[in-house]
Amino acid sequence: RRSEHEDRLDRLGVVLNVGVCIEAIAPDGVRIARGSGSHRVAADQVIVAGVPAPDTRLHDALVGEVPELHAVGDCTGLGLVQGAVLDGARAACRI
């Protein structure tokens, strides 16, 4: 689905800057650094997205505290809704 979203953003004229370090965000744009260079990009909106990572803190805290525990969805690794629903269905069948 990533390519579908990127295609749509491209058709809308949205500029993606990946692999950059953000130095500053100002009302009229953002200063980014890539490699040894730095420059300002004019923008009226800036979206900062990080690398998605599973969050297993709740699961880890409950291990050994409850009689039965199943991790499902993105806490087991990045996936799509279909995978999360499948994880949930499998966990429900094991209960």
Topology readout:
Blueprint: H1 2-11, E1 21-26, E2 29-34, E3 37-42, H2 57-62, H3 81-94
Antiparallel strand pairs: 1-2, 2-3
Structure report:
With 95 residues, this protein is an alpha+beta fold. Helix content is 32%, strand content 19%. The chain has a three-stranded antiparallel β-sheet with strand order 1-2-3, with no helix packed on it. Strand 2 and strand 3 form a beta hairpin. The longest helix is centred in the C-terminal third of the chain and has 14 residues. The radius of gyration is 20 Å and the shape is elongated.
**Uncertain residue segments:** none
Name the beta content range: 15-25%
Derived structural class: alpha+beta
Helix content: 25-40%
Q: Report the biggest beta sheet as strand number plus sense, adding barrel if it closes.
A: 3 strands, antiparallel
Computed over alpha carbons, the radius of gyration is 20 Å
How confident is the prediction overall: mean pLDDT? 88
**So how many helices?**
3
Outline type:
elongated
The main sheet orders its strands as 1-2-3
* Helix and strand element order: HEEEHH
Query: What is the first-to-last residue Cα distance?
Result: 32 Å
* Number of E-state strands: 3
What is the compact description of this entry?
The protein contains three helices and three strands; from the N terminus they run H-E-E-E-H-H. The protein is an alpha+beta fold and 95 residues long.
